[in-house]
Automatic annotation (TrEMBL):
Highest taxon of source: Eukaryota
TM segment ranges: 93-115, 165-185
Protein name in UniProt: Chloride channel
UniProt-recorded Gene Ontology molecular function terms: voltage-gated chloride channel activity
Gene Ontology cellular-component terms listed: early endosome; Golgi apparatus; plasma membrane
Organism from which the protein derives: Syncephalis pseudoplumigaleata
Assigned keywords, A-Z: Ion transport, Membrane, Transmembrane, Transmembrane helix, Transport
Length: 216
């Protein structure tokens, strides 16, 4: 089965091919003209204004091309100088991984010790060292031996009832820690208002949030 031909060749023209977008024209003229996409333009009427205006997407293809060019430049350096630069470049990743692991270990250890200290602070404090928890304050004594170096809040406040002293100390620390957390989140780390998982997933997909993983 055949269809009649009109003798003219049918041509299909796309609107995008006939009228390329400005972004395509910029990339065709200069590949380095557009490096990322920033959400900094004003919002349209009736739409919600984005909360973060410093988002930028990572151009993975251009980054790979630049990394390949950098590797070729390193290989082109001759002599001892080139060997030293190539060795430094090869050990950067291992140095970074070691630094991250050491920092994570120190942070986890500090959090563990701090959590035990704050947990014991609900019941009292150490007379010989305020920074010591109950276990380290009385570590030289046996388990069933009374510790005179550890003072409960009832004895420190001169309150006969331990229940009242514990309630006052708990309410005081609760208010202090809640106010400190709210102040730090409001004035120092606004991104800490949530769990942080949404921001980390966004960063892993190729977006840049400059004030999330670094200090101000």
């Amino acid at each position: 089965m055949s269809f009649p031909s009109s003798g003219r060749r049918l041509t299909f023209r796309s609107r995008h091919l006939m009228d390329p977008s400005p972004t395509y024209q910029q990339l065709a003229a200069d590949p380095n003209a557009v490096t990322s996409v920033d959400v900094t333009s004003p919002a349209l009427p009736g739409t919600m204004t984005p909360k973060r205006s410093d988002f930028a997407t990572i151009d993975w293809i251009r980054d790979l091309a630049r990394e390949r060019q950098r590797k070729l430049q390193l290989l082109s350096v001759r002599g001892v100088r080139g060997m030293v630069w190539r060795w430094i470049d090869a050990t950067q990743a291992w140095f970074l991984v070691s630094a991250v692991g050491l920092s994570a270990g120190l942070l986890v250890g500090a959090l563990h010790v701090g959590a035990e200290w704050l947990s014991d602070m609900r019941f009292g404090y150490c007379k010989t060292g305020f920074y010591l928890n109950q276990r380290f304050c009385c570590w030289q004594l046996a388990a069933n031996e009374p510790c005179t170096q550890w003072a409960s809040w009832s004895s420190a406040m001169g309150i006969a009832s331990e229940t009242t002293a514990y309630w006052v100390a708990y309410a005081t620390y609760l208010g202090v820690f809640a106010a400190a957390s709210a102040y730090l989140v409001d004035y120092y780390a606004p991104f800490a208002v949530g769990s942080g998982l949404a921001e980390i997933k966004t960063i892993l997909t190729g977006y840049i949030i400059r004030t999330f993983l670094g200090a101000r």
